[in-house]
Amino acid sequence: MITKKNLLTVTVCSVFFGCLLAQTAPISERLIPQKNVVYDFSFAELALDYLNTKDPVYLQKIAELKATEHLFNHSKHFGNNVPNDSKIELVTYLLSSMNNPETLDHFKRNLNYAKKNIAETDVAQQVALQYLPKDFSFSSSLFFTFGYDLGVAYGKNASLNLAHPYFLKNMNELKYYAIHELHHAGFVMLKNNIMPSLDIANYREMAQLIEYLTHLEGMATYASLEIRKQENAMNVDDDYVALQDSMRMKEYTKEFFDIYFHFKNNPDSVLTEEDWYKIYILSDGKRLWYIVGASIAQTIDQKLGREKLTDLIPEPSENFITTYLHIKDK
User: Fold this and answer.
1) pTM of the model
2) What CA–CA distances, in Å, run from 81 to 44, 56, 186, 260?
């Protein structure tokens, strides 16, 4: 196992003894540009090179990628539970998780699928643009990576982890989550690259966090709903199973707004540990800001039209929720 302490020694040795193994294609050959989005496979392909050879030269190559900068910045901002003292440490940690030949085979399968069915078709950009303002254009990369989260957005870029267990089991979900994550990138661009901070202290700030993340995740979840319907893919991901269940949605919507108004109506109260558990319910627990957020987006779209829905993105995210509350019963 390569540790932080001996990594430098191994890398220096590889300069003399391992370089022949590390002859790789230029990074430009690992990119598939489509209009204003670049589908960037450099991380995933170099990860495959490393996993096939165990040559640590590849770790250094990966550490220098734009994709790695993206993951590193995301980790720094949100405090994900991964090493974030250096990029080489992060990369080494992410790739150390691979010890199953079957997983590697599925990763290769996912890599090929992503090239043919996402990048070459440009489906992620084409669908995401339908849920962004008419005059919007991307200037983004969608990075295909290994080992970090399921998918993340940071600034104007986004990424998908081709080795995530969910995608290893459900390859076709990569298409829908590519739309989801790329929509995030457009959303953040329209917010002037402002992303929420978890360093908050009172209920006012918590309500603003809920507003932003419900808007962000709700819109991205809604963005792939129609294509899922067209392709009979509504029953794999539980978010979309929930959206088809009227009784469950009634329960979820009530629970969401109970939590939201708990914070919104008491802006000066100080946050407690119990309050953070409520956020767990909204996020990883019942995923209410994904599911209820998508329902809010669908209601606005159906009652006020797509232009109104997308024009809300650059506005304060509170407007997304208040617009819904004004029309939901009309």
Assistant:
1) 0.90
2) 21, 23, 26, 27
